[in-house]
Amino acid sequence: MLLAFYTENISKFFQKSDYTKMMRSAKIGYVKNLPKIDFRKVYQFFDSPITTLDCGEKCAIYNPNGIPFCCDICHAVPAVYHQEWNYLQKNSNFWHRWKPNKCAEKPTSAEIIRENLPENMILLACRGIPCQREHRALSCRQFPFFPYISDDFRFIGMTYEWEFEQQCWLISNLSQVSATYRQEFINTFDEIFNQWPEEMESYAIKSEEMRTVFLERKLKLPILHRNGKCYLLNPGNERLSQVDPDHYRKFSPYLIKPNSEKSNAPSK
Ligand code: SF4
Ligand code: SF4
User: Nearest Cα to 164, choosing from 55, 46, 44?
Assistant: First the structure.
């Protein structure tokens, strides 16, 4: 499906420049003549918080800019499909086109980043915090996850954007992901893949990339399965072992429980 966010560290597919290292997600290819998706419905049925905690408060204290990493344009630039942009323009004034000078700390070149942007997508920036939750883009709703597609082309569940292991608190606390959120995620992508099968191919490529990265790291990768259970997947043979989600790996700076310092972060 749609989202492509831009992050500080990026997949090998996009290792061309510092700029493209900001890419934060999933979309790799692009599709022409897409059937129309009803984004009002997509948003309506994919709206539950990921967790009962305010994870924005957990990560923002580690961001020098004082806001959640996934809402910081210096860490992540949202990309949405043109169809979604049309919907957002008609229904809110919360979003505008992203401009290269958005992040003073990391001046970037529009040409370089756009060179890697799929043709059917557009880069946006929101007005920032406070978040208008009803107008969050799909990429905001799914972050930090993407659909994991197995080598034999099955959408088996969710895994995370591994480039954000050091920033995103939730990645170190996967046991906090609610069952309702997981189900909505699965339902949403089932529907999107049903209408846009080519999107599943994009995520299959991303999943393959993750297997390669984790093979190199000699690590298994977490899967929040569509069957409600949690697994570690062997990237070599895709064998699954069921695990207690409390035992998933944690990453610095979330190895220890952060204090409850207040921030102005939105609830994800
Ligand atoms: S998903 Fe939550 S924890 Fe992760 S970067 Fe966003 S606000 Fe922070
Ligand atoms: S979650 Fe809200 S504040 Fe954060 S990037 Fe998305 S729309 Fe903007």
Answer: 55
Model confidence pLDDT, tens digit, residues 46-78: 999 999 999 999 999 999 999 999 999 888 889
Question: Which residue(s) pair with 242 in the sheet?
Answer: 231
* Ligand nearest to C-alpha 164: 1
Strands 79-81 and 95-97: unpaired
Q: State how far the Cα of 204 lies from the Cα of 226, in Å rounded to an integer.
A: 16
The DSSP letter of residue 146 is: E
Q: Is the pLDDT of residue 30 over 60?
A: no
Read off the pLDDT band of 15 (50, 70, 90): very low
Tokens of 224: 């929040």
- Distance, CA of 22 to CA of 5 (rounded, Å): 8
Quote the pLDDT of residue 89. 97
Query: For ligand 1, atom 5, which residue shows the shortest CA distance?
Result: 168
What number does the ligand 2 atom closest to the CA of 68 have?
A: 4
How high is the mean pLDDT of the chain?
A: 84
Which distant-in-sequence residues (6+ apart) come within 8 Å of 66 by Cβ?
Answer: 60, 263, 264
pTM (two decimals): 0.85
State how far the Cα of 169 lies from the Cα of 226, in Å rounded to an integer.
22
Pocket (CB within 6 angstroms of ligand 2)? 71, 126, 128-129, 131, 136, 140, 266
**H helices present in the chain, as ranges:** 39-45, 55-60, 82-91, 110-115, 138-142, 179-195, 197-217
